[in-house]
Amino acid sequence: MAGHPKATAMKRARERAKMEKRNEKVLRREARKKEKETELPSEEGVDPDLVGIKPGPQPPLF
């Protein structure tokens, strides 16, 4: 007698979905890495997050 063939098929589908998701994740990482390489380098010694911020109290955003 066969066990539960439905469970085996479900497990295969889950594993296939995991593999596809893992492959998509690798592709996204590679794409992000390529984007960073093509990005224009900022000035040496200047933090891009701090550009435009003056010392002291900051003006209100709104």
Question: Top keywords for this entry?
Answer:
55% helix; mainly alpha; elongated; 62 residues; 1 helix; single chain
Plain-language structure description:
This protein is mostly helical. It is built from one helix and no strands. The radius of gyration is 25 Å and the shape is elongated. The model has no long low-confidence stretch (mean pLDDT 85).
How much of the sequence lies in strands comes to under 5%
**Helicity range of the residues?**
40-55%
Give the oligomer, counting copies of the same chain as homo and different chains as hetero: single chain
What's the pLDDT, averaged over the residues? 85
The gyration radius over C-alpha positions equals: 25 Å
> Largest sheet at a glance?
none
Would you list the SSEs in sequence order as H and E?
A: H
How many runs of DSSP E, i.e. beta strands? 0
Shape: elongated
Unreliable spans: none
Structural class: mainly alpha
Number of helices: 1
